[in-house]
Inverse folding.
């Protein structure tokens, strides 16, 4: 079963508008973390925002905010005031509970959403 | 700001050849990972490495793959006999102990197998 689902293969938004990129996840672990990454055409993975499963408030980082609905198992990324430079692929990822042996678990990625910002 | 670096940025090789992809994680990080992304697809986990040994590996990480931290700074991924389907972007990532809220990725190495 897919652990991370991003149902929007592509989205477009007008410059200066807000856009929401959807992400739903599946885990039975009580402790997990959710991440969003931006991948521009140059290929690098740029970390945007993190939400821990026990965090009481939705995460925010500048123009990025994460709409975390734990009961629905969704972690949507909201980009406010879109800019042309926001055009990129966006990936949602999850880290499940860390192993008892120590260390940090791997990230599991969704298929991504390609965002196009139009002037 | 410290960053993960990877070399080379692009590697072209013939099928059957060995390749070594190099990563220099951030200096005080202790947990290291390799991921790969076939063109147009999602990022997939390959292997995690901690305390000089593999912590976890995926089904992709078969006997053709190996990882090493030879000198305390570099973290390498070796593919012994490359196949066409190994063509992908390979990302190295690292985590600082206690800092669970991010995972730093390197810029990636694009491997093309001809």
């Amino acid at each position: 079963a897919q652990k991370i689902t991003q149902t929007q293969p592509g989205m477009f938004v007008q410059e200066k508008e807000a856009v929401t990129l959807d992400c739903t996840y599946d885990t039975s672990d009580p402790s997990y973390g959710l991440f969003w990454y931006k991948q521009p055409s140059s290929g690098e993975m740029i970390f945007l925002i993190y939400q821990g499963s026990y965090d009481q408030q939705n995460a925010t980082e500048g123009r990025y905010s994460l709409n975390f609905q734990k009961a629905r198992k969704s972690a949507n990324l909201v980009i406010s005031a879109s800019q042309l430079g926001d055009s990129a692929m966006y990936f949602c990822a999850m880290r499940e509970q860390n192993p008892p042996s120590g260390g940090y678990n791997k990230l599991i990625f969704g298929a991504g959403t390609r965002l196009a910002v139009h002037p | 700001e410290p960053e993960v670096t990877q070399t080379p940025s692009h590697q072209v090789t013939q099928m059957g050849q060995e390749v070594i992809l190099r990563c220099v994680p951030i200096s005080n990080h202790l947990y290291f990972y390799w991921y790969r992304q076939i063109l147009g697809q999602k990022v997939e986990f390959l292997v995690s490495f901690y305390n000089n040994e593999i912590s976890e590996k995926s089904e992709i990480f078969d006997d053709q793959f190996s990882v090493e931290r030879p000198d305390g700074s570099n973290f390498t991924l070796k593919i012994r006999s490359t196949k066409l389907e190994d063509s992908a972007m390979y990302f190295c990532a690292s985590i600082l102990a206690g800092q669970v809220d991010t995972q730093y990725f390197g810029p990636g190495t694009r491997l093309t197998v001809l």
About this structure: Chain A touches chain B through 26 residues (CB under 8 Å). DSSP finds no helices and twelve strands in chain A. The mean pLDDT of chain A is 93.
